[in-house]
Amino acid sequence: MTLFKPLAVAAARAASEKKGEGIALFNVARTSPVTDYMLIVTALSRPHLESLEDEVKKAARLLGVSCLRRSRRSERWRVLDFGGLLVHLMTAEARAFYALDKLYHGSPRMRWANHGPRRKDRKNA
């Protein structure tokens, strides 16, 4: 297991808890020269996009990881770079247009919903 796998799972769960849609987590380590994991999430609106970004960053901070870079503010697409994890938060229109899911369709899609304890469980432990 790589260092970034728990972060990728936590980020996917954080997006799910904030009602992100179409959550897709890919292990792209064999196909990408820049990252190990790619998370793609659909946001329903600009405020939802911002809420998802805040929640993913919060989940990373709980694991001691900071966002290294982020894309400029966009109404339709945000990219958060955590090194071994790239998070793409996109409106449905941007996701359909850029079709990142198709770009990485050959990479293994990861299960994240039932992988280890949830963040809330860790607080109570």
Total beta strand runs = 5
Strand order of the largest sheet: 1-2-5-4-3
Approximately what portion of the residues adopt beta-strand conformation?
Answer: 15-25%
- Domains, number: 1
Q: Biggest β-sheet: count, sense, barrel? A: 5 strands, mixed
Order of SSEs, N→C?
HEEHEEEHHH
Q: Which CATH class applies here?
A: Alpha Beta
Poorly predicted runs are: 118-125
Give the structural class.
alpha+beta
Secondary structure tally, helices: 5
Average per-residue pLDDT, rounded, comes to 88
Basic shape = globular
What is the annotated CATH architecture? 2-Layer Sandwich
Radius of gyration: 13 Å
Q: Enter the CATH topology name.
A: Beta Polymerase, domain 2
Question: What name goes with the CATH superfamily?
Answer: Beta Polymerase, domain 2
Helical amount: 25-40%
Distance between the termini: 23 Å
Concise structural overview:
The chain is α+β, with helices and mostly antiparallel strands and 125 residues long.
Report on this model:
The structure is a single chain. The chain has 125 residues and is an alpha+beta fold. The chain has a single domain, classed as Beta Polymerase, domain 2 (2-Layer Sandwich). It has helices at 4-17, 46-62, 92-98, 100-103, 119-124, and strands at 21-27, 37-43, 69-70, 77-81, 85-91. A five-stranded mixed sheet has the order 1-2-5-4-3. The longest helix is centred in the middle third of the chain and has 17 residues, at 46-62. The two termini are 23 Å apart. The relative contact order is 0.23. The model is unreliable at 118-125 (pLDDT under 50).
